[in-house]
Amino acid sequence: MRAAIKNQDFDFPIKRITLNLAPADIKKEGPHFDFPIALGILAATEQVPASALEGYAIVGELSLDGRVRPINGILPMAIEVKQKALKGIVVPLENAEEAAVIKGIEVIGVKSLKEAVEYFKGEFKPDDIASKVQDAFSLDFEGDFSEVKGQEVIKRALEIAAAGHHNLIMVGPPGSGKTMIAKRIPTILPSMTFEESLELTKIYSIAGLLAGKSSLIKTRPFRAPHHSITPVGLVGGGRIPRPGEVSLAHHGVLFLDELPEFSKEILELLREPLEEGKITISRMNATVTYPASFMLVAAMNPCPCGYFQDPFHECSCPPHKVHSYLSKISGPLLDRIDMQVGVLPVAFSDLEKVNSTDSATIRNRVELARKLQLMRYKGQNIFYNSQLTPAMVNKYCKLGKAEKLLMKEAFEKLKLSARAHNKILKVARTIADLDQSENIKEIHLAEALQFRNLDKYFQYLKV
Amino acid sequence: MAELELLVALNMIPYLGPVRIRGLLNCFNTYSDFMNATRERLLSVPEVTPKICDIILEFRKKVNPFDEIERIKKLGAKIITIEDEEYPRLLAEIYDPPVVLYVLGEASVLNMESIAIVGTRKPTSYGQKIAEQIAGELAEFNINVVSGMARGIDSFAHKGALKAGGPTTAVLGCGIDVVYPLENHELMKKIVKKGCVITSFPANSKPLPSNFPARNRIISGMTRGTLVVEAAEKSGALITADFALEQGRDVFAVPGSVFSPYSRGTHKLIKQGAKLVECANDILEELNLRKNDSAEIKEPDLTLEESEVLDMIDYTPVNIEFIVQKTNKPPGEINAVITRLQLKNMITLLPGGYVMKI
Hints:
The complex is a heterodimer. Chain A is an alpha/beta fold. Chain A contains 22 helices and 14 strands. In chain A, the strands form 5 sheets. Chain A has a 5-stranded parallel sheet with strand order 7-10-13-6-14. In chain A, strands 1-4-5 form a 3-stranded parallel sheet, with helices on both faces. In chain A, strands 2-3 form a two-stranded antiparallel sheet. In chain A, a hairpin with a 4-residue loop joins β11 (278-282) and β12 (287-291). Helices cover 45% and strands 13% of the residues of chain B. Chain B has helices at 4-12, 18-27, 31-36, 39-43, 50-62, 65-74, 89-92, 125-140, 153-163, 185-194, 211-221, 236-246, 264-271, 280-286, 304-312, 320-327, 331-343, and strands at 78-81, 100-105, 114-118, 144-147, 168-171, 196-199, 225-228, 250-253, 275-276, 318-319, 347-350, 354-357. Chain B is an alpha/beta fold. At the A-B interface, α8, α19, α21 and α22 of A face α16 and α17 of B.
C-alpha cells in the first residue's frame, strides 16, 4: 500500500493509521480491499476531496506500482450498488464492462490509483462503458446439429428433452457419437431471458471465470466435468465456498460422460440440485446457496467394454462386471432421469446423402413448446413438464380411453417398471406440446414409450 | 451292494474319479473294511497308483460320511446311489457315471424322457427367446428339461420349462447347499418345487472351474440329446456337446445369424452334423416322440404405415436410425410405429436402439 501510494506520487502519511472495516462480525477476505483502503488514506490526508467519494463503491486490487488490477465477482457487487441506491462504482478498467451490465449506476473504470484520484477531483473523464455493452448481445454457438449426420432419432429425443427440460441418458457403444451430440445441446435450448442471463453471469463472476469475456453471458452453458472430479469441484466448496460445476451449468446442460465411472459419492451429490434446482454448501466460515438448475445429460456404455448385448460385437466382459457396472446407476439417480435413449454408430456409407435437421429449426419448436408449458403452469411454481409432481401428472397428463388401453398393454407386454409410469406420461406431455396439441394422443404416448432403452439392459441382467 | 457310507466317503475324497471308485468298489463292500484296509491291500486294486494311495490314506481319515449323510438329511435333500432305482438310467450307461448323486426336490423326474438345453452365459435376446420357447414346448410334452442353472441360456431354459408348468432338472457344479450364481436362488427354489436340483459334488463344494466339465458330463449323460442354443466359438456348451457325442447321444443346435459371434459355435456343430433345430418338434421327431401340430398363428392387422416399417425390419437387428433415413419420416412417427409393432408382437426392441422381427 505504501509502495503503491508513493509510486503514484502521493504522500503516505507518517502517522499512526487506524482502519475500521465495518461491520466487524463478518470475516473479510479477498484482494479487492487494497484500492478502497488506499483511497481512504488519501481522503483522510486530504489528497483527494473526501466529500467527492461519498456515495461511491470502490473495489480493486493494487499492485506495488499503484496500478489497479482486475478482481472476481464484480457483477454481484454492482447489483448491490444498485440495490443500495449508491451513485456509482469505481472498478478496475478490465472489470468495467462486467459492471456496466447493470443499468442505472455510474461505472468508472480506472487503470491506476492516480486516475481514480483525478476522477474524484474532476480532472479525469472515464470511457463511456455502458454504450459498449449493448452491442455484445448476440448468440453464437459452437457447432450445430446439422453437422451431426444421421442420428435423427437421437436428435428427436434431445428435442423432446430440451422442450420439457427432461434429464436424459444416452446408452451406446463407444464411437457412436454420444459426446459430439451432447456438446450441441445448448444450440437447441431456448435463448436465455435477461434475468437468467444475469443470474448465470453472477455465478461466473464469483467463480472468476469471466476474465477476458465481457458483460453478460448469453449462451447457455455446457459443462462436461471429467469423471475424476472431486465433490468440491462438482457442487462447489472451499474455505470460502465457490460455485461448482452444477452451478456453472445453471440454466444450461451438465453433461456427465461415462456416468458409471463417477464415484457413488459424486452421483449422490447430484440429488439435491436435481431436486431443488439449487445447492447449499456449508463450511466453517459460511453457508452459501448457489442456484444449480440444469438439464442433466449423461452418457454411458452398456458395460465396461461397450458391447454388452451388441448383436455384431462380442462383449468381452464377464457377466458380473456388467452387473456391477450397470448397477452403479440404479435407484435414486435413475429416478430423476426421464428419458433413456440408445445411441448407435451410423454406418459411414450413409453419412453423405442423409438429410440433417439444423439447430435453429429444432430450437424454434422447442421455444414454442416451452411457451405452452409456461402458460399452462402459470402460478404453479413450476415451469417445465419435467417438474410435474405426481398430483400434477394426474391433472395435466390425462389420457383418453384409447391411450389408457395402449398404456396398459405396453406395461404388460414391454415389462415396464412402475417407476417408469409417470416419466412416460411426462415425456408424452412434452411430445404433445411439441405437436401443439392440448391432449396427449395415442401417437404421442406411443413415441414416449420408446425412451426406456436402459431398462432393456437391466431386464437382461435379471436372468 | 456297497454300503451308502462307503460310496459317500469315496465320492468325498478328492482326485478319486468315478472310474477309480468303481475299481475300489470291486474290492471293498463296507465302509469299515475300506477304512481298515492296509496300504498293500489298497495298492492291489489295479486302478490305484502309489500316489492315489497316499491321497486315499490321507483323506479317508478326514472325510466323515456319517456327518455328510446327516447334513444332507437336514437340508431336506437325499443321496441316491448308482444302484438305486431312482438313479437316472441313461446316466448309469455312460463310461464314468458318478456313484452318488445329491438330489434336492422330486427325484422321480430323473427317469423321465430328458433333453438338455445348454448355451452361452451371455445370450442375445434371440437366444433367450428361443431357449425359453423350446424349453416350454418340451415341457408341455412332459419332457424333463435338463440344464446347468448357469447364467444365460441355462437359466432361460429352466424358466421356459417352469413357465409351461413342466419338470426341469438343474445339474450343479457345486455342493447342493451352494447357490451359484447367487442371483438364481429364486430360480433354484422354483426348480426344486417342479423338478429337482442334482449334483455329484459333496455338500459345501465350491463352484470351482474344474467342476464344470464333470457337471457337463452329467447333463449330457442323463439325457437323450443335448440342444445347444447359442455358443460362441469357445464355449462351455460345446464341451457338453462333445460329451454327448462321446456318450453316443444326439446333438442338436439352433442356428443364428452368420454375423452373430454367439452363433459361431452352434453353426460349427451343425457343420459337423448336429441336427438343426427350429422348434421342439424337430427334437421330438428325431427321438420318435410326436407332437400334435398346433394351429398356425394368424397375422395381426397392420396399418399401411406399420407394414411399410415392418418390411424394413428383418430377423437380424436393424438400427432404427436406418429406418428413419430410408422412409424419410420424422423419427417421432417411426418411434410410435415401432411401439405399436412391438405391442402387436411383430418385432422386438433390443437394447441400444436395434429392432428385430420375431
